[in-house]
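cache lookup: miss for this entity combination. No prior model stored, computing from scratch. Input as submitted by user K.M.:
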Amino acid sequence: MGTAVTHAPAMEGLSKDSEPRHGPVNSSRPAALKRRGRRENLAGYLFMSPWIAGFLLLTAGPMAASFYFAFTDYNLFDAPKWIGLDNFSEMFGDPRWRHSVQVTLWYVVVGTPLKLLLALSVALLLAQKRRGQAFYRAAFYAPSLIGASVSVAIVWKAIFSDDAIVDRTQKIFGIDVGGWTGDPEMIIYSLVALTVWQFGAPMVIFLAGLKQVPRELYEAAEVDGAGKLRRFWNITLPMISPVLFFNVLLETIHSFQIFSSAYIVGGGAGGNACGPADGSMVYTCYLYVQGFENSRMGLASAMAWMLLVAVALVTAVLFWSQKRWVHYEEGA
Amino acid sequence: MSSPSLSTSLDPGGPPSATGIAPAPSTRAGALRRRLPGSLAWHFGSLAILAVILYPVIWVIGGSLKKSEDIVGSLDLFPGSPTTANYTRLTEGIADISISTFFLNSLTLAIGSVVGILLSCSLTAYAFAKIRFAGRNLLFTLMIGTLLLPYHVLLIPQYVLFRNMNMINSYTPLLLGKYLATEAFFVFLMMQFMRNLPRELDEAARLDGCGHLRIYWSIVLPLCRPALITSAIFTFINSWNDFMGPLIYLNEPDKYTVSLGLKMFVDQEGVADYGGMIAMSLVALLPVLAFFLAFQRYLIDGMATSGLKG
């Protein structure tokens, strides 16, 4: 889901107003306060009840079930059979699984930095107040809304196929791979191009961050004779580092979960393959193939947990590194 | 905006001071002189990016008016003699199912999702923003945790769950979560908005004896309209674009959404009827494009605040 976005300051929790606030009237009457507290608790849990039900039924319960399935042989029709770590050893020994890990990692490592670099560069360009700025901002954002659709994936497949524009342009330079989507090595780059094309969402967030950098800082630096590059390095970058962190975190997590575009551009998992020679067989595609086409629900659950571990590790490393390069303003 | 050309002509063109203590007027004129080529470069750069961004969209519009065999091979964006044959082809439907069925199905799901998200997420957001109940910090942490959780971990057990409840091939699996506030992003967006409402409003209402339900419904919700609109549009678009959910849960073509119908088109006649496929791709995008054109300000503002302190 392209727009599932968290809030960076979320990590700070609710501290803003979580200290107990005693009303001047109630504090002198503990019994009334207690009664009021109980009423607040009741109201709170009533308002939260849809979320709590959803959390238990659709998140916590399924996670527990998935953890159990990961250690079983389960085909949906017979009861799950406990097989210990067999799913994991099968997974690690499966060259196709290793291939899907490789494809996905490559996609994340190439696509995410390119996308964020473009997003930041264009945000810096658009941060200059000029005529047409709002128009460009809106136009550049549009791909982020349609990029996840089947339609765009179909168009993408066409544009990157043999004899279409990208291929023809390439031939001018004497390179002929017969279209990216037909080439096992190149098809993943057509997906990278698709994610980079959607740079608008992080760009909008960068722009909002750039707007909050106090102008005085730049003016002071200019007086001190700092050049453009220095000002960017010493003022802009530290000031927008929370936003940068937020974008890196979310875009990375999202990249790991790419599915629809790989599935469509790769021709679907129909016949159990994704792209020429599995060129676009990203992790979730293989998970889908194993779970829903081969009915290996246990194995697919084990794969899902490996994905969770990978994403959790990346998240943990990013949060750990945050201390070194992310500057939160005092008292903000 | 000042006029750079005028300033440049007035500029005596003195060399920039090497000492760094040049008089103010001359530095300003120098900055203006630099701005003219800068402005040109700015527009040039923006237009170049725009061209790359728009190319696929223009390509699909032009392609839908071409004959099937000309779509991929020809580099002309628009055909010399446009044809509407691809669109008339669409009126025949896909695999004996009319295109309008897919649209109606997608619309049902999208509207159902919007209603669910607005109700359930605003209730949860209100609890986090306005009610001081025991354990809310823990619940809040759990909610943030779900934001970072890869959906694929839930994919298989949820499928097993809905299958055991005999709900495969119905819209329940696709909608239930929307009514149970599982989309933490929207809870967050609304909560952030509610926390910034003036506290005096609901405190006054409390003193007048209003309960939380009353405050939620009559005071907070109406004031949250911008956040609700942003959430509604994002929900609609996400639901319209969703592919994996319908792919897994729907298996009768007459229940298919536009995304699935399109995928079926590709699988069944994609090669034989390239033109129809491209036309259908464009038609499938129209609702999202229309929403974008109508509400882009809400979308961009909602997106922008999502990364910042509310």
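stored under new cache key. DSSP finds 14 helices and two strands in chain A.
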